[in-house]
């Protein structure tokens, strides 16, 4: 295994290493986790001064690719599938709030399938490798170029990297943003009023705040030198269990 400088966030890296971090990469990921907690404190402290944006989420893109992704998403089970759709709704809204011009198809398809790798356990392999492989298969079945599928595969791997920036991977960044808004309430203060309630109404929780922490702990056990092992030590599983978004899951 070669030592790669910088934040680990590509499909090639995950395939090569199985998701195992070097000592230098662990330092980078820990720094990203700390920065994330600082952002939460700042966001909560400043939310009373923010006026929620008034724009609406765009209609899901309709194409052979997105229809193929929807078929694949249905096989994930209600908890992970619902999380994928809400990730798209919230990530898309946050991208609009940040005035980012994102590839709508890539964001939608990757959001729907970013956690699909959790359906199957493979000890010693980061689950995002399996998510990326399913995405590559979906793109191939839809007749899309492999290069485009690799963008989605990279984004699926990238979304699990704390400290990820828009410059690192814009699709991965907003999949991460949408997923964390859904599971832990991060940046919920930047969402249009009523969007979280609508997201959970259209795509029910199906016990996601109980099932995802179990999967986080399993991933941490299966890849003890991986990103989720560090996230679990930082309390991510507990954060999901006590998330303010549970109020919308009733």
What features would you describe in this structure?
It is globular and about 45 Å long. The mean pLDDT is 92. By secondary structure, it is mainly alpha-helical. The protein contains 12 helices and no strands.
Kindly summarize this structure in a few lines.
This protein is an all-alpha fold and 250 residues long. The protein is built from 12 helices and no strands. It is globular and about 45 Å long.
Strands, helices and their partners?
Elements: H1 11-17, H2 23-46, H3 64-73, H4 78-97, H5 104-113, H6 127-141, H7 146-158, H8 170-184, H9 195-202, H10 208-222, H11 227-233, H12 236-241
What is the overall pLDDT average? 92
Number of strands: 0
- What would you call the structural class? mainly alpha
Shape: globular
The parts where pLDDT drops under 50 for at least 5 residues are none
Contiguous helical run count? 12
Spatial gap, N to C terminus: 46 Å
Largest sheet, strands/sense/barrel? none
Series of secondary-structure elements, N-terminal to C-terminal: HHHHHHHHHHHH
Helical residues, percent? 55-70%
Strand content: under 5%
Please give the radius of gyration in angstroms.
17 Å
């Amino acid at each position: 295994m070669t030592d790669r400088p910088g934040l680990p966030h590509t499909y090639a890296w995950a395939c090569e290493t199985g998701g195992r971090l070097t000592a230098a990469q662990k330092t980078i990921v820990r720094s990203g986790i700390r920065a994330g907690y600082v952002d939460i404190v700042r966001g909560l402290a400043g939310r009373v001064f923010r006026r929620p944006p008034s724009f609406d989420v765009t209609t899901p893109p309709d194409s052979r690719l997105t229809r193929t992704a929807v078929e694949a998403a249905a096989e994930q089970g209600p908890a992970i599938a619902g999380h994928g759709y809400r990730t798209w709704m919230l990530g898309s809204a946050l991208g609009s709030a940040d005035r980012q011009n994102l590839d709508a198809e890539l964001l939608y398809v990757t959001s729907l399938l970013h956690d699909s790798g959790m359906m199957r356990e493979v000890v010693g392999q980061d689950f995002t490798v399996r998510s990326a492989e399913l995405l590559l298969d979906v793109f191939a079945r839809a007749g899309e170029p492999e290069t485009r599928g690799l963008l989605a595969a990279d984004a699926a791997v990238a979304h699990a990297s704390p400290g990820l920036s828009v410059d690192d991977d814009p699709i991965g960044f907003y999949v991460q943003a949408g997923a964390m808004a859904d599971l832990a309430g991060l940046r919920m203060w930047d969402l249009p009023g009523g969007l979280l309630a609508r997201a959970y109404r259209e795509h029910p929780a199906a016990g996601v705040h109980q099932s995802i922490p179990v999967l986080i702990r399993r991933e941490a056990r299966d890849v003890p030198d991986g990103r989720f092992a560090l996230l679990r030590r930082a309390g991510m599983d507990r954060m999901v269990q006590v998330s303010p978004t549970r109020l919308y899951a009733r």
